[in-house]
């Protein structure tokens, strides 16, 4: 695949993810493409959120915004995890100041059959994402690698049931207690869609993949082991197997299971190359749980960026010392907040 694209000049991210020595710690910022950037906010006044996602030209433009501004070591394709529920036939609106709203959420297991087309042809339904990835690979001219991504099954299921963000995820967790079999069935079907989607992204040019289980922290260890971990594992195994079968070179995979510290050890034995950790765990503790055969990514508190540059500098140094400079990717512990002053985000 790669010979269709400009040669990658900065491969620090790929090397760090693969456990190959790097002369410097690579850095990128979760949710770097959007929100806090004034140029993005201007762009958003002119374009609807999903119109940007669906236009390869517009999506690649937003993807490149942080790359033009900062000396980052990776780009992440501009899209959203909710394009999957949308492709499955659910309406998703992006409401300014509120976030995503799904006006007709799943309320009972029977809704799965009426609402969703779980056997969709992902390459066709989400072809705009693949086109955006291919175009962006060309526009990047090999400057840095391009990360593709997807939401993980439990996080997507939660949005499909809650109809948007939630403080407790009570509706979703009610499903886990009342309809465990149907929940597992839905998670399994979403897993198949996600695997096809991530494979298609690599075929289109994605050079790394990140799987966002942003809602992992709502689950206790038992529920995490039943409703999240098996599907995260199925995704990494399924994507790598499918790429091997297609004779497409595999790419490093990053898993971000926010607040799932109990899973760091088992994830370190999985097919994921990188475990992204949030700020609520000491880097040294994360390293001792993960061992030395996996790369760690993280974990500065996004709110640390409200400090002055000098303080940020100190906190970053402390973080890097604690993680160590090898098998490590510097990042935030979750996405950057919209009100962060971008003048301060150059780490
Ligand atoms: O760097 C990037 O921002 C790349 C693109 C990207 C978006 N969403 C664009 C976006 C990525 C990687 C995501 C992932 C995503 N989306 C996650 C997982 C990561 C995480 O932060 O936990 C989740 C849970 C979502 C769902 C979602 N989309 C929420 C909760 C919101 C509202 C709050 C917010 O994050 O801004 C969105 C909206 C969204 N997705 C925006 C952008 C740029 C801002 C909305 C706007 O422009 O109106």
From TrEMBL:
Q: Which Pfam families match?
A: URO-D
The record describes the protein's role as: Catalyzes the decarboxylation of four acetate groups of uroporphyrinogen-III to yield coproporphyrinogen-III.
Could you tell me the keywords of this UniProt record?
Cytoplasm, Decarboxylase, Heme biosynthesis, Lyase, Porphyrin biosynthesis
Descriptive protein name: Uroporphyrinogen decarboxylase
Q: PANTHER family from the entry? A: METHYLTETRAHYDROFOLATE:HOMOCYSTEINE METHYLTRANSFERASE RELATED, UROPORPHYRINOGEN DECARBOXYLASE
Q: Source taxonomy lineage?
A: Eukaryota, Metazoa, Ecdysozoa, Arthropoda, Chelicerata
Similarity comment: family membership: Belongs to the uroporphyrinogen decarboxylase family.
SUPFAM superfamilies (alphabetical): UROD/MetE-like
What does the record give under GO molecular function?
uroporphyrinogen decarboxylase activity
- From what superkingdom does this record's organism come? Eukaryota
Record pathway:
Porphyrin-containing compound metabolism; protoporphyrin-IX biosynthesis; coproporphyrinogen-III from 5-aminolevulinate: step 4/4
A single GO BP term for this record reads: protoporphyrinogen IX biosynthetic process
